[in-house]
């Protein structure tokens, strides 16, 4: 039945323990497991075993990201469609990483590694599933509900958009076009889940991560996140504001390795029958930072 | 590819003009058309032609509700599955109501009239689709984003849940069970759209409407809605609170004909792979009104 | 220079340890001292030694409340004016209670015990006074900023209002009058501090406490307070709503002895040159509970 | 009994009609009168005749600001104290400006013109004073509650602070000191009204206005203000954030003449017995913009 959502992101980090400290105490995720090379984390409101993997490396960035599919048959089905599209695939066998079943991996037209998977251990949300309270009693830091989306950069956004819409059946909620309407410079994509994006791309070098975003509940929680980041002396790149694109409320900041993070709230509900919203590049500033109305240099340059 | 969302509700009202005044000036919908018997309305953030139809009648209630399906082929497909389930269907021809294409109608195990449709005229959100602002400049009243869900009553919630999960492939996000776990007394169902419910049932007489809900953005907008209702002397049944079920923020009130309305905000994102959350009937008060922790008499009795 | 603010309330409680547990873990105050009969507590944002005193007793209620005056000379000055008004006064000597200096005590026309004081030990807010963060890192429960006001009942609101406005130079922000405008049934009074009330009275039996209120920051914090009370199974009498009077956002609930508490947010800023706002008794429901528009029986009857 | 609050600010503007359009349609004030040179405006929640005066001039800036005193006798009293402090005063006669009675004018040690007044016509808040609703039905733009404070620049903050604390009996809530603690570079002052500031100074050239601030209710209203400014293409200098000093939530932007405005929400309650909070200049970035933690160049340079 198809792709459900972004399920996990594996980030490369320079100092594993410093990163675990940041993602647990400041972001507020929980460590659910460790193996030789990786630490596995989960947000309080997620049901599956983990959504974030930290892996020690010499340079920061995105090792891979993965989408969860609804049925185990979907794996084989999508594997074929990916091959037909012209990307090579390979199977990642069960047990390669903690808690995970088999996955299909491929390289996107933008050079990023994508996996599809169905099987993963189930831990359940921290509030349980029997007469649950609305939020857990003890949380730390920003305490987001979940991993929300990733934004990547790439040279050819037409191709990668085609990959996601035609092969994986995602829907493009919004796009940014050059003023002559000839080149796509931003693409926002989501599975059938109402979210304005599970994954997005802006034009830039291939293989790079722009940011990984975590979902917080509302505009006050964005303020709380900003306050927590200042108290902990974490660099904030973009102070609280609204996106024109997605309408979401947001702040951007950096993990200890320089990977950009976002705390993202709100945003509309969208569907596969909604026409794609178009932004023209002359309005890209307003589209991305609705109040500032221009990009800061770091926003385009700081990629991992 | 299946059911996308609740698309419309047709409400029976006693005084059409008084109802139009209420749904436009207090709720804040826009009239998009009228025919001899009906007035058609749309919320500012909806894309399709209308989501609410008011129809003059001798008694209030729900004339029908309808789900939009993603592909036109879905109609025939679901028609067969509904027949196989044992419900009779009939086609509603294009042009029966304004802006709508053909629909498949059936009677639910609870006696309610349900339609499925794909075709409907497109008007677009009030903010447009080219470099849109996040909200329209001029709104009236509560100004919800959209029709969010309906809650109906029925005798046999096991059957109607089976209908929606097996025939229409909805997912049950939550259920309320008697303490002995033998009888389902509440059932919350959603399509593949992340919403905690498009439609829900609580045990009660067949064919009745409990409420139709409109989505507002956040807890401050729930307060604003309550303030507007008081200023306009609209009866509020349940003042601002949180649901345990769905975690949503809410108020309940009545339209001029006695149909219950809700302004609903927030609520979690859910998916078809999430296990159904269970509430036991001894906690039903907390499940429905998390702060009050008990039902008021009117909440069970006032049905239309 | 006069009265600055409500400074403390001494509540009678039935079970001291149970009460301390409630006021520290659910309300979120800090214990700052104990003597043989009493426990002293302080909110995180208060500067003085304590604002709440719990005293073991056979019946709940208000032992005394006290206003802090700006200058030590004010004590003698007010003492004379109180005597001239016709109330007897007595000095409470320094050291009678922890951290406190000398006080002047009198009995109000409504039978309540009022103290005025200037001297009290200084502890400072939890965030400190050098480059402070906006909120403390570790809080528990509702974590109000401060004791905000008390509401008392009494037979003769004209006299007690005259006492506070003419003797203590408070200002009446709002009043509730019978429809014939002859009898005052509600009176809201504040010192020169912008608050809509430090102290209020509604008509009822003398000597009784209606509630003691703690200040929370905003409407989301009222929701958080309500969520915390439900999780801890504390009885909520009035779920989140707005007052017409003061415009404040509010919930009411009970401490383990039956003393009513309020978490109160927002409210306007007012001044001594503002005319008193008048509510007529036929609108008292709306004045007190803006959304419900009527009083519940318990609200008038549950007094301690 | 003393100074109550900032009562009005008279701003010099380049194009009167363009400014009136901005202050009425974008800020949302109401025009209450005009004379040959000036337009008078009032916020919906203010009680007095006006709080903002726009005056056509060749250069932007602050013509004068004024504090309202509680009693008419206060005028003469403060007049003497100002003279004793060494500033010359002069009387502004009743009728010089619309709606105003007599005032005492003096020049501050920083070269700004300050007036004190008691008499001013009374218009009342838009919601009335009999059974009022909490907010008016029809507002435009940002719709602040009131003029909140002004921030001015000056060379000698020690002297001007002494003037306000010793002569006008204001209280200094916070100050910014050079790291050696020898020079005051920021001073925040308030009357007996609980507000963290009616007036503030930062070190800079004499006679200049840094900004005039309007009070909005909460963090969501700061977001709404920012959205409105973007829709109307008003330049925003500082997007939504929190101040360390005052804890207030804020945005900064410019009127059509280049006078800086602020929409300010929240902030703590403070009193004359609270010790002054100290910020050291090495933390001035965090003190002023808690999330950004550094000043932007324009913030120091754009003065009118």
UniProtKB/TrEMBL annotation, chains A, B, C, D:
GO terms for molecular function: catechol 2,3-dioxygenase activity; ferrous iron binding. It is an enzyme of class 1 (oxidoreductase). It comes from Aneurinibacillus danicus. Residues 5-119, 146-266 form the VOC domain. This is Metapyrocatechase. Belongs to the extradiol ring-cleavage dioxygenase family. Keywords: Aromatic hydrocarbons catabolism, Dioxygenase, Iron, Metal-binding, Oxidoreductase, Repeat. It catalyses: catechol + O2 = (2Z,4E)-2-hydroxy-6-oxohexa-2,4-dienoate + H(+). Its EC number is 1.13.11.2.
